[in-house]
Amino acid sequence: MSRVKTKSNRVGVASVAVRPHAVKKQKAMPAKAPRPSPLRDHRRESSQRANAAQAEIARVWKRYCAVRGHAEHAQERNDLRNRLIEQYQPIVRFTAERMRTRLPAEVEVDDLFSAGVFGLMDAINSFDPARGIKFETFCPQRIRGAIFDELRQMDWVPRLVRSRTSRMDRVRKQIEMEKGRPATDAELRARLDVSEEEFEKIHRDSSPIGLVSLNKKWSDSDSGGEAREIDVPQDDTGRDAFSMLQRQDMQTLITRGLSRSERLIVILYYYEELTMKEIGVTLDLSESRVSQMHSSILARLKAQMKHRLREMTEE
Q1: Could you tell me the CA-to-CA distances from 101 to 72, 111, 143 in Å, in that order?
Q2: How many CB atoms lie within 10 A of CB 116?
Q3: For the residues 203-218, what does the mean pLDDT come to?
């Protein structure tokens, strides 16, 4: 009996442990208010400013289109156009810098930017917002066209010569790819279908001509600096060390055995390129006396040089 009672007690304890009313219910916590986020506030403010700027530009466009064709509103029209130019100048800068990467080094970005501004002005004058096209999509074509026009004006080679040169280069590359060797003049002439005189003219015009721009920049890899060609003029007076030593040895050989005044006459006349009158003023001598001493020095030097030349020949 005791065993059965113990078992029944155990079952009762177990049943009590799993009763649902014995589990304590947790109280519902109140919802926390969202914390303020500086980044979210900054984004909201930026979006509001962008919307306000777009609304302002839309208002400027509307007013500009209304007064664009009226001469009596010329001042207001110019002010509105300047406002639009300031708004869309970054597009001009971006287009100029992008085109600059495919051009020679002597072409400046500022020159491309200045030409692009004229293209922007033309785009503003001809843009119609009623078409439903964004101005950011419409203006880059006009800007690139204005920059290309400026590049054609800067090019010293006529456009016809450029086209002929490009055609000959294309034909030459085609023949080289087909034959696997350099193209001959006869093959080029036959492929271009031109006469011999015309081919000679095209070949002469397409010959490369070396031109160096004074605005071309040279970079120094050691110091990291840049210098233009015009900032580094050619020094015609520079001589190498060997020439300087040879000149000094010749001067020592010529003036050996001469007095101080005679040595000064030779140096001032032949090395400093002074006149007889200027040498006389320097040495406190008359011009005739300097000329007389100069003739005497030449006679003595000729005799010395003949003697030295004879000695060198015998050796």
Answers
A1: 44, 14, 16
A2: 27
A3: 63
